[in-house]
Amino acid sequence: MKKNVLRLLFALVFSLSGMVANAQTSTVSGTVTDGKIPLPGVNIIVKNTANGTSTDFDGNFTISDVSSGDILVFSYVGYKNQEVTIGNETTINVALIEDAAALEEVVIVGYGTTNKRELTGSVGSVKGGDLVNTVAGNPTAALQGRLTGIQVENPGGQPGGTGNVFIRGINSLSNASPLYIVDGLFVDNMNYINPIDIDNISVLKDAAAAAIYGSRAANGVVLIKTNHGRKNKGLEVTFNTRIGFDTPSKKLDFINGQQYTDYLNQRFANDGSSTTVSFNGVDTDWQDENLQSGIIEDYGLSLSGGGEKSSYFSSINYYNQDGILIGSGFKRLNARFNSNHEFGKFKLSQSLGITEAKLQENNWYGFDGTTAPTVALRNASNDGGFEAPSTDVQGPGGVNQFALATLENNLETTRTLFSSLKLDYEINEALTASVNLGVDYTSQKRFQFTPTYFMSLVDPVRNVNDLNDLTEFKQEDINLLFEPTLSYNKTFNDVHKISAVLGYTRFIETQKSSGIYGQGTPANSIQVVGALPSSDQNILLGQDNEAGLISYFGRLNYNYNDRYIFSGTLRRDASSRFAKDNQEGYFPSVSAAWNISNEDFWESETINFFKLRVSYGELGSYPDVFYPTQAVFLANQSNTSFGGGTANGLAQTTLADENLVWETTKTFDIGVDMSLLNSAITFSADYYSKDVEDALVPISIPSTAGVSLPVTRNAGTLVNNGFEFDVTYKKSEGDFTYSVGTNFSFNLKNEAKDIPATILGPGIDEDLRVVNRTEANGPVGAFYGWVVEDKVDPATGDFIRVDTDGVAGITSDDQTIIGNPTPDFTYGLNFSGEYKKFDFSLNFNGVSGNEIYNLSRYYNILWQDGGKLTDVLNSWTPSNTDTNIPRATVDDPAGNKEPSSFFVENGSYFRLKNLEVGYNFGEKALGVDWIKSVRLSLNIQNVFVITDYTGYDPDIASTNGGRANLNSGVPGVRSGVNPLLGRGLDQRAYPNARTFMLGLQAKF
Questions:
Q1: Distances (CA, A) of 369 to 569, 827, 954, 981
Q2: How many CB atoms lie within 10 A of CB 835?
Q3: How far apart are the first and last CA of the chain?
Q4: Which of 8, 184, 199, 648 lies in disulfide reach of 227, CB 3.0 to 4.6 Å?
Q5: Nearest 5°: phi and psi at 218?
Q6: Of all residues in the chain, what percent are helix, strand and coil, respectively (each to 5)?
Q7: pLDDT tens-digit readout, 883-909
């Protein structure tokens, strides 16, 4: 079936392109350079027609259906337009002249575009073409290592997994996610976007750039512009296909069945027990059973083009990734249609995107460690066909994670509809009125079914399921945007350039959900809600939430002679999430830039562009929850017996602070932008400082209050400052053109200041131990526990705890910060080049100075249940006393399992994230006139990583796993865990994968 579909797509492409080819008569070809270096992407059109093309990677072009006397117009950003009249020649080579007054690089900013010459804020940008090399279900992963000031923590190799994105460190204690804006519409993330559809991404990092968005901009803003096609360009059909496979990039070393038996006997002896066990002959390698290779498929077809007053882009894409863990996988289908149109003084721009994504997760791998190797892979005599520990040789307890993941059926289906419409009216040459309308609709369905099974009477909570479990949950989110703006652009006397924008935003969020969790359908084959028995044990789920944001904003820019540039912004937000008297927040910013290289006194031939920037501004944040100032009461939570019957009662489950106000981030930035050696080298550097006031903090309250959830309060301050820079070098030598870029982001200080009480992270085990703490004047989410020596007590085999408080004796006061999950700096290195028809790219990224709390060592060395790493072969015994691995014990009288530096590891790494090599056959590939280009590519991801970390991978973002949120919600619908408060926990992270892909791209 799949082959037939591909054949049909090829036939369609060939048919369309063939019709275009039949109309061609004569052609002209050539090369476009800047005098030295070939220029890719130069627009070339026949004047006063829609016939056009663009140069390829080598600056080459071919344009058909032209005649003698036609005029070719060559246009390229940063260069003067050039017109060439066609004579009898068939080859035309053009050298474009740099336009000193033109823009060096157009970047997207809030409510408009600008260029680096006039930019007063700190903005990073990346072209969509630079993202497509990274093959991932979530395009966020492609930003890793690309831009300064942006750190992306990926959830290992999890298909479709959502990573954590931090822009310039941690700027809040409640939500560190940036604000995403796609084609002018606020959205929660960019997960559903097909990377091939992205034209440009700009990241607004300081207040000067982001303050015009006010609310939620404190964590930075990610502006995404999707492809809308190009004017004056004929139909271009592009077919992309990539197919390959994932394979585990690393495996851990576990002991086998015989070694496990010997380990148990030693543990019995250490605990003073006379029990001994004999090897049962079972030796199951559970890691090999759980990890596998998986196929990745990525197919896409797009059409684009445009006439003199319109352009269009449409695409369809299918992505499928089998997970390297059994029971996991991700599928996504995207469709998009975008267009631009001009009607006299009117301009219309529309975007429409539709996505369906299906995610299946393995919720059990690594949960409380791994299964003992002496547990058999199958046991046909048990209901469900599996077994769990039940005898002494299989350990004192534990679960069969492979069995649980195999038996559980779960699927999360997400459908999104994104649509935006912008209408511009040119009142006069300087004044334009616009209105932007948008809707972002998301429908999510979560289904989870666990059949009946029996594996063991030991740990029966997980190992026995007498009644099957069914959860079905549906949620709809609708975001509506209405945003009229008025823009003014005018230059007076060729030296005074004034631009301004005024606007109004009305943004409405609605969220409705409903669902049920129940047990006991008539049979495991019946997995529908209607088959659940009527029972007061069924749990009904659902919410109906709404929030509104009304804003007024304005920005004024002044540019004097392209030398002195000033900008001021003010935004007033009013959010329904606050009580009536505190709904309004005001967020101003001011910034200035000095293009020193434009001064008459500037005579440097080496530095051809030099600009100094400075800015100050205030940004705001509101709580994530819809009604943080209203207490929550639930019915049937406090029932009692009254008059011989049951009387329903209300129970308050959440406290609220009615006096909440906006969290405010005051930020200062000073930066410099330079280009050297005729722009062969570009350099930028920034120092930033942020002070967060009235931080929204989840404060834990005593259980005696009768509620379990923390209450959100303005109860803290944060400080955050750092330094970042990036350098890019471009060079062309004959047929070899290459570019090298590197970026570094140093986090000089990022810590909480005044907070009234310690903020605790998630529990890590069934004993509810907590590792992460955020305390006053300390790092956010730091690891807290005992400092232990790198050896055990030779006499006892227990950890030797270090006296840290200077007071004689080891007491609880000696517990201290034992690790910081926030890196000292992050960096990226990107190298790309072209030689004749070959092209290649290498993308590196890394972090340094952070720590990881390795729960694999916790569960697989010291925890009483489950299999063990080979580290335990070096455990303390009476004959092996010179070691850092404590004695094997279940009783653990010395508290060796308590949080300590033993589990803290260096999380620094350097990774070759992406390697791609391509070959472009060029025009008339395979001897066919109407084929514009055919490119073959080989792509390898996660090629290697250099690290001292002993877990699967140091790139972790797995707070929502294991026991972090086990006690919330119901199976299949667990509450999210704040990634800031549990940062750096390797909480059963999804093992990373190495990916090999072969690709084909054909343009017609």
A1: 53, 32, 18, 22
A2: 14
A3: 25
A4: 199
A5: -65, -25
A6: 10, 50, 40
A7: 999 999 999 999 999 999 999 999 999
Task: Please name the amino acid found at residue 890.
Answer: V
Residues with Cβ < 8 Å from 878, sequence gap 6 or more?
A: none
Predicted TM-score (pTM) of the model is 0.86
C-alpha to C-alpha distance for 804 and 228, rounded to whole angstroms: 61
Q: pLDDT tier at 987 (50, 70, 90 boundaries)?
A: confident
The whole-number pLDDT of residue 523 equals: 96
Which tokens sit at 548?
């509104």
Token code pair at residue 115: 């260029």
**Residue 413, strand partner residues:** 358, 445
Hey, what amino acid is at 328?
S
Q: CA 624, 627, 629, 630 torsion: positive or negative?
A: negative
- The residue type of 192 is Y
Alpha carbon separation from 428 to 175, 234, 326, 489, 946 (Å, rounded):
43, 31, 62, 10, 59
Side-chain half-sphere CA neighbours of 526 within 13 A: 11
The burial of 777, by beta-carbon neighbours within 10 Å (0-12 exposed, 13-18 middle, 19 or more buried), is given as exposed
Does the CA dihedral 462-464-466-467 come out positive or negative? Answer: positive
Residue 309's closest CA among 71, 48, 615? 48
In eight-state DSSP terms, residue 219 is G
- Three state DSSP letters for 456-506: CCCCHHHHEECCCEEEEEEEEEEEEEEEEEEEEEEEECCCEEEEEEEEEEE
> 319, 307, 106: which is closest to 196 by C-alpha?
319
Q: Which residues pair with 351 in a beta bridge?
A: 338, 420
Q: Which residues on adjacent β-strands are paired with residue 620?
A: 215, 664
pLDDT at 737: 87
- Alpha-carbon distance of 222 to 445, in angstroms, equals 27
Edge to edge, what strands does the sheet with 60-64 contain? 60-64, 27-33, 94-95
Identify which of 206, 10, 234 has the alpha carbon closest to the alpha carbon of residue 109: 206
335-363 pLDDT, tens per residue?
A: 999 999 999 999 999 999 999 999 999 99
> Bridge-partner residues for 59, per DSSP?
none
Instruction: Please give the pLDDT value at position 15.
Output: 37
Contact assessment for residue 875 and residue 862, using Cβ atoms and an 8 Å cutoff: no
**CA-to-CA distance for 373 and 261, rounded, in angstroms?**
9
Phi/psi for 258 (5° steps) reads -65, -45
Place of tokens 């084959």: 525
pLDDT digits 0-9 by tens, 299-325: 999 999 999 899 999 999 999 999 999
Sign of the C-alpha dihedral, residues 751, 757, 759, 764? positive
CA distances from 577 to 518, 542, 700, 711 (A): 33, 19, 21, 14
Task: Give the span between the Cα atoms of 812 and 784, in whole angstroms.
Answer: 12
> Measuring CA to CA, which residue among 449, 473, 326, 456 is closest to residue 388?
456
Burial class, 554, CB count within 10 angstroms (exposed 0-12 / middle 13-18 / buried 19+)? middle
Hey, what's the torsion of the CAs at 382, 384, 385, 388, to 10 degrees? Answer: -70
What is the Cα–Cα distance from 712 to 701, expressed in whole angstroms?
A: 11
Contact 992, 952 (CB under 8 A): yes
